[in-house]
Records
---
Amino acid sequence: SLLGLGLAAAAAIAGLVVLRGTGPDVRALGAVRDAPLYLGVPVRATPAPADSLFERAMTAYTGGNYGAAATGLARALAAGGDSAPALFFLGASELMTGRPAAAADALRRVIGLGHTPYLPEAHYYLAKALLRTGDGDAALRELGTMRSGDTVVAASATALADSIRRLRKR
């Protein structure tokens, strides 16, 4: 591509200057004034089939069509898509379509991946799924695994746990 040729030419010229130059001017060549523009699409490789499946599923998700989203996310996972976001939104989709057991399965898989950006929310929504199945004890245990903190999710988890406890006292 033209971009690739341009970058290669610039690197070659910079390499010649660096090899021949001395002193502080050489270091100036390493300066980057503006970061490369990120357009939200890969520019160096063709998207994998799983990526387009994920994007289509998320279009359904953002449109409120959670059944289609769940189907699409399952396909994206089968095609080798990035598991953390696909599993998380699969769990959310299953929860939104009234399938809490399937939601719990997907959310447990997210949690099993360890530290991902979806971990706190996965615990919270797993607790919601467990509540939907009627298992308040398991929901409380799940909420108890969450770290307290200043996040919205932590505050929501604390409030949900308090609500479960208050309901049990009645």
---
Amino acid sequence: MPLVSILMAAFQAEATITAAVNSVMRQKHPHWELIIASDCGADYIDLCRASGIQDKRIRMVKSPTIGAGPSVARNAAFDQARGDFLAILDSDDTWKADKLSALLPLAMKSGLACDNTCAVNPDGSVIATAYPIDNTQRDIDALAMINSGVPHFPLLRREIAGNGFQAELRFAEDVVFNMEAISRAGAMTLLPRPLTNYIQRPNSATNNATAWRRAEAAYGQILAMLEAGELAVPSGVNAAIWTAFKDKRRLNLAYGAAVESGTATTFQDFLSQQRK
């Protein structure tokens, strides 16, 4: 039975991490290890124990410096991973109980698989899914992933991850990671069932009042890296990938204007307004 190494970056996650960890504990696929990467110096193992969570499959590492960012934190966990397969779970999100058991057979076959991420409010009400919910399993390419507007949290073979996350990126690092993984795998198999709850909180790292500024800086970095040929890009779509990130940068600036004017709080809220 394949071992799945789950990488979880945690920064000031005391209020949310136990729910995330409990969703791992409920997985039907039992052969996993959870590596929590503390990026703030907190001892999340002690926090879990205080909440009644004790499991030898859960370990913790620390970023080399406090506040190193999600890429560096996940890479610290990646370096300690023992599994042939990897999965990413953020410390403020949760999984359905069959996340691993449903995706693992697909990842074993194609190398890279994802579910249909569901963006939800803290009360559980649905905001949007990455794709329409149906029964049509299919392959998606990098452009579909980039343009979906909702993050993807894949299960993948370790070798598909390359050297991990681009350490300098503090925003959209997951999009770049997934793009490079698709470049190596050829495509990502989509199971269009929502097995990941991407929980939107106004004060989270991707939704607070300054998040759009960090996104603007990151998109500038990504475009420069693309221009320099520093990223793995699927063959034949370089120009389209460039345009997709330019469009995301433009959308982010519009989101920033909405935040500054008080007409939007979270990015998903902004996207919902755009769809009307």
---
Amino acid sequence: VGEMETKEKPKPTPDYLMQLMNDKKLMSSLPNFCGIFNHLERLLDEEISRVRKDMYNDTLNGSTDKRSAELPDAVGPIVQLQEKLYVPVKEYPDFNFVGRILGPRGLTAKQLEAETGCKIMVRGKGSMRDKKKEEQNRGKPNWEHLNEDLHVLITVEDAQNRAEIKLKRAVEEVNKLLVPAVSDAFLRLIHFLWPVILLLNSAE
């Protein structure tokens, strides 16, 4: 008897973790008729725990430094480069971009910083959780960014040739987080269950 083929689990990346969190949020907003989502919620929670644990272990084991080994030798003096990526809040007003960029307990941003060697900060209107404090700080020295539209500020310090590579990588990764996404697996699940949900809903 041939061995059963096992599908490799997705890699524990910040974007995958955020997709799982979005899936859980979307599932919680759907009517859970007859407890049809109970097992799915448990599986989602288990997968979220696995990814968080693996990401934490990867950081401790130094696997996030792999890209640093690919950088060329430094040439010239240390410079500081930065780039602003504006968040498409007008196009997607209901999407929680700040939560997706920062991640649970700031894990996504920290992981990206470790992987790219760049500092990643959310700035501008709506960047602070405490909206009252944000209004109080608006217009004060060192808080000028609150007058700008919501954006991600990416900064890096290194030799010019290395800094440009790091900044480019960080921009590519952050741009991925600025596109609302739900995992393909969850979309297939909803497509499969939707007739059942509609049937149960009409029976009420």
